[in-house]
Fold each of these.
Amino acid sequence: MSEVIPTQQTQQTRGLVISESTLEWADGAWQQIVNKVEKTSKRIGVSFPHASVSGVYDNMRPSWWTAGFWPGILWQIAAEGNHPALQEIAEQIEEKLDEPLYALTVHHDAGFIWTLSALANYRVTGNERSKQRGLMAAAQLASRFNLKGSFIRAWHDTEKINRAGWSIIDTVMNLPLLYWASEVTEDPRFRHIAAAHAETVVEHFLRPDGSSYHILEFNPESGEKIGAMAGQGYAEESAWARGSAWMIYGLTLSFHYTGDNKFLTGAKRAAHFFLANLPEDHVPHWDFRAPDAGEKPRDTSAGACAACGLIELAKIVPQAEASFYLRAAEQIVRSLYENYGTWDIPEEEGLILSGTSNLPGGVHIDTPLIYGDYFFVEAVSKLRGAVLQLW
Ligand code: GLY
């Protein structure tokens, strides 16, 4: 096991002004998180959870897009020091991730997987082997860039569908892997690719009202935009809440790494759309344009991810604007803690209830999701004033 050394922050940001009352409830939330994760880690161990099914986390394959979130939770806690057992599990998961890494089966979600495993290890401990893994994942992610369309390709093909021209909003949250790779190699090519994809996000995925498409298809030869698909949202022109959350946090991070104002403006537009459409308890329904009639579950994972983006936004906008984004994030995270937390449900392994993975596909609806748990942990940690930034 590598030694924990002080966290390096790669981005220049202003400190947050967090109120005493927020620090107090966030501390309480953090204690609940640590207690629960210490307990669940003994059963979950070195595995790849995605969703809690009847209170118990499942175990997906290592190449599944969610494979980084459990080690990400473990690193968020281990970075404090004094959690060697959690750190050891995270390190063992990272080793198991060598299977998809060396099989070259990496897809657009390489950022989700290796940022929160190998990069987290490198950022917290300085482990060289982890740095090499991060660079290998970054090289595979960069290789998915389509020069004509200026987008990173999403999934591989299926037997029946050629998906060379498909791009999805989720990829914007994977770009920090590329920005990081440029920093450590002092070679701007990774950053050029990330920024070019982020420009496509602002130009094509972000709608004038601040909402987001999930899937766009481009002609892979000419780069011309062909059309949109609903994906995990209700409809092509609807507003999948997690897509908006990826947009808020992803564009904020693209601004951090490039200083390009169009990313900051895009992040703000996405944030204002998201906040204007929240229901009374500040936790989004799974799609902001899903019809009121019928099933309309929440997606707590979208709320948690958006809150992390809003907190980072608060660090980079002028002081006069910062409190607007910080207060909005506090309201979301506090509601997740008080209204969706599983602190009184010891038999439930998830930390927050009511995530919705893929409603149109009928997959994991209204249940804890590992990425919802991850972003909740990250948000609470940030609201306690922690400076660890894994992205
Ligand atoms: N990246 C897939 C999702 O957000 O569900």
Amino acid sequence: MDLKHYLQFTDLSAGEYAYLFERAALIKRKFKGYEKHHTLADRTLAMIFEKASTRTRVSFEAGMYQLGGSVVHLTTGDSQLGRAEPIDDSAKVISRMVDLVMIRTYGQDKIEQFARHSRVPVINGLTNEFHPCQILADIFTFIEHRGSIAGKTVAWVGDGNNMANTWLQAAELLDFTVHVSTPGGYEVDQAVAGIRSGASYKVFKNPMDACRGADLVTTDVWTSMGYEAENEARKKAFADWCVDSDMMRAAKPDALFMHCLPAHRGEEVEADVIDGPQSVVWDEAENRMHAQKALMEYLLLGRR
Ligand code: CP
Ligand code: NVA
């Protein structure tokens, strides 16, 4: 099989996503039925974390064990990665010993550099620019609840961050529309998002307008990891970008609410929304594992 990395959402085609969503559903059914699914027996995943994580760590680690494989967990603090060993050297060494690498880091350039020197597939577990595994799980979750996302409208309320960029990539590839509302100074940048045109998204000054008629309303923390120094300025700038029940009422009556988590109730979302009947955040979090199991299997074995 050709070496295939998953560094951005656009690294797979619409056809490959259709396959992955079906495969994730099958893998989830088998998991719920306590049925063994050891397609990656004897394979090893290295997970490299340069930023904190709960969901990404647990979903990849539990998922790999459930596929019959094993994992190695590395952080900057307990490996030579934090002591300035060149990325190229780390990639060459680690990828000689494992079958797959997942990396959570800062700049997208770092993961791309690692991938250029890796002999095995590299998966983006979040960078400053993108979070493709999360959107993979989010769209899988949308499909479970509402069917195909093609032609639908997703309202993005909040920061023009890694999640927003990845939603824009997904919209262009899978034919849906994103309504984006960010405070001034925190807009999405088409060049950073790596999309071909502005046809699949619309920008709204007022977050309420972005939510109008949406099939899915979604948001994220005001301050992403790595931007903590801007926390106070962001708290002021984002005060009106809190998803509340009025915004949910502006969306379609059957609109879903998603948040990649961790969430800050009373900041980017009110408790009655995230803990309310339209919220699917717990399914969304669980689906990280099922979707990533399908992804890891696909990168190593292709279609089954
Ligand atoms: N959503 C997400 O990636 O969560 P963690 O930061 O806990 O991995
Ligand atoms: N945008 C957030 C997502 C956390 C899962 C961050 O990068 O910190």
Amino acid sequence: MKHARTRVLVTGGAGFLGSHLCERLLADGCDVICVDNFFTGSRDNIAHLLGNHRFEVIRHDVTHPLSVEVDQIYNLACPASPIHYQLNPIQTVKTSVFGALNMLGLARRLNVRILQASTSEVYGDPTVSTQAEEYRGNVNPIGPRACYDEGKRCAETLFFDYHRQEGVKIKVARIFNTYGPRMHPNDGRVVSNFIQQAMRNEAITLYGDGGQRRSFCYVDDLIDGLVRLMDTPDEVTGPVNLGNPHEITIRELAGHVQSMLGSSAGFRHLPLPEDDPMQRCPDISRARTLLDWYPSVDLQTGLRRTVSYFAGLA
Ligand code: NAD
Ligand code: UDP
């Protein structure tokens, strides 16, 4: 008997990560339903997929219930950059919390697996390095980042309560800073800002002294981690950190980008945003053990590919 193809719902499928995930799932032979309200995502991100008869797009806001028949759900819908999620913080909380409730309700009704795109922001401004999944975090619940951090934390709570109370098959990925082609050019994130500034030979905007540390994961590696997590046995729920454990300072990142693009415009120092985490680096032992996953794209290679993408937009 011929097996039916897996039909997968990707919320936030027209965004940066979502569009890469849709592409990967189609390449793996799945049917894909992309749901998006196009707040930060765009049709351009998925234009190359629209001709594929196994790909469907539904304009829908996940804060409202949705009824579709699918075999798996990836819940990515939520603005991810500080500029975008702070534009309408109440909507950001609603997207995380009502979005999780609606998608978990759907997963329960259909009895299918659901993966949540959670974030390293659940650790807030961490007081330990590196951050393992057991770390409970250091989040300011009333600051400007709280709409995102606490929204995502509440979504994780809902995932685990639906799992314990209703038996829903959940997977929670805690995603650390990810970059690559199709990052939104105006979302203010550090990689897209620095590349575009260096391309125009403008001074690089360093917030604070640039001594804050981050680790950057190339998008293809991250997507591979998400798919591996979805494919684990039912008893694997996570949370599982996914990110690149190579930590650098923001000043070092600026230096890499400037030398790659031959920019000599120097730095423009701006104030450090409130509650900006001073360090962030994943402990990925759990992902290595459970998923046999380790990022394979180094920063230079990933930055080169991202530069090519932005050069194509110019
Ligand atoms: P993105 O902003 O490019 O994508 C988010 C997508 O969700 C967009 O297409 C947007 O239009 C859509 N969306 C937003 N609100 C919605 C709503 N109410 N209903 C339907 N669609 C809605 O961001 P991204 O970088 O692709 O992030 C995707 C997911 O991964 C997010 O949940 C984010 O929190 C998580 N994440 C990303 C990173 C990263 O570094 N990119 C890090 C940690 C976690
Ligand atoms: N940052 C910076 N200049 C910029 C944009 C960001 O110095 O033009 C810094 C920011 O203060 C933070 C880091 O780069 O410390 C990463 O910022 P981003 O918004 O990309 O992601 P975050 O990890 O803060 O969510």
Amino acid sequence: MPDPFAPPLDRAAFADRRDRFLRRLGGAAAVIPAAPLVTHHADVEHPFRQTSDFWYLTGFDEPGAVALFLPHQPDNPFVLFVAPKQASAEVWNGFRWGCEGAVAEFGAAVAHPIEELAQRLPGYLDGAEGIAFRVGRHPAVEPLVLKAWAAQLDRAPRSGRAALGLVAPCPLLHELRLRKSPAELERLREAARISAEAHELARQVARPGLNERQVQAVIEHHFLEQGARGPAYGSIVAGGDNACVLHYTANNATLRDGDLLLIDAGCSLADYYNGDITRTFPVNGRFSGEQRALYTLVLAAQEAAVSAVRPGATAEGVHDTAVRVLVEGLVELGLLQGSIDGIIEQGAYRHLYMHRTGHWLGLDVHDVGAYRLGEHPVQLETGMVLTVEPGLYLSDRLPVPEGQPAIAPRWKGIGIRIEDDVAVSEHGHEVLTAAALKSVAAMEQPLAG
Ligand code: GLY
Ligand code: MN
Ligand code: MN
């Protein structure tokens, strides 16, 4: 059934995406599988999460389906294989659209029960000049595609035709997904709104003695209460030194007076658009001198990097902007030494800043789309959306590069990241997550109640 928290299915928008994908396929037929249900433990499954490629082209939110895109069959260019209506299954697992719904609601020219895929796939692929299928990702469907193609090749001497190659659908499809439509931007604004509100709520409740998980609960409660599916990725709620573990998700330590709290959390909407925000603030409402110096530096780097987002710039350029500000500041603070250019060239800052400054954002949190095409970094265009998330992490986990100063104890256990979601706009950019405050003053606002 449609999710009441998702906007009504915009059939024309999905049809337009399919048309554009079909045109790009040329004479190749594409086989795009939906996600299967994934086992959590024993016979219990994880909540269903559709694959983003399948969702982008169909809006169909059931597991185990397969979509065919058939430019060589203009009367039948979009075919769905789906779980058929079946009362005995629906009483356990809920409503299915079935073949009739796949045609009536989702615009398939024809729909078949998924059980008929093996038998019908060779016929649908017959006459295609190539087969667009992502190998290595869909173990249930891949053997059927390869078998159908092998049979074509076996018959080719007599039939006179066979698909000439297996091609990757990803570059064609992901180029489309990389450029967000106005409607998609609106959904990303909504994900950003809910995510930003959750961060503001978290800052109001955080205090010494609370457990990280109790802060996580406040954040994820807000996601669900606002109609999101839940967190877009494992929420990171990391007090003190835990923040120096980039993918910390244990979230089970007690918050300590004098520590910072880093929260990296964002929601995933009913139609899968995501927010991805990081904020860092003092647990007791007051930065120490070292924390303030480093926070101010990360904020300067983040604001400079956000300012670098505009049409014609590159994600690499945004990263380079952040790195330069960080390195200059770290030299001033005595945490690095040497020439700025030399440090950057040698990567002699990477024990303190070891990740990239951002990634594309959309239906996937680390969204699809190339950052480079051969030698050339991809230029930012209106409608692209990326995160900007520099940080600094002062711990003993990585060795200090030769020639660089040891980290004095007073700096250790400080992990800071500031992350916003930024859309490239005609004349520059729009910070989708601006409602999540980040100034030093805001991070020190008095504890509530
Ligand atoms: N939370 C994942 C990321 O920031 O990339
Ligand atoms: Mn993040
Ligand atoms: Mn991110």
